[in-house]
Amino acid sequence: MKTTIPKQSEIQRKWILLDATDKPAGRLAVEICSLLRGRGKVDFAPHLDMGDFVVVVNTAKVLLTGRKETGKTYAKYTRYQSGLTETPAAEMRRKNPNYIIWHAVKDMLPKNHLSRTLIKRLKLYPGAEHPHAAQQPVAKED
Prior knowledge:
Layout: E1 15-19, H1 25-37, E2 53-57, H2 68-71, E3 73-77, E4 84-88, H3 89-95, H4 98-108, H5 113-118, E5 122-124, E6 138-139
Parallel strand pairs: 1-2, 1-6, 2-5
Antiparallel strand pairs: 3-4
Helix pairs in contact: 1-4
């Protein structure tokens, strides 16, 4: 049997809508990564960009289990002396709720040039509204 590799022009991309309300951040990130890479497609190839666009709404309502709301911190280093800043998850949720999911998805994608293309297809919104109605995203059920 011959192995066929799809061409970039033959890849069909869909728009998928996910609701992050009361879903654990890690489990949601795994689902998003699978959709971004195209793991569920029949002709999946790990070296090709086969994924779909993913729109996530209500990122401000994502669930952090256990003591992560108070104990988890996001570190940022400015490369200056004493330039390390740590932001607790509760403050990050208040300032930039999209970052919680974006950071989890980015760390789960493979560390290569392809992941930089994939992460650009992730669209995050803190509320229920999104500007992608023209693309007709399909809501994914649990």
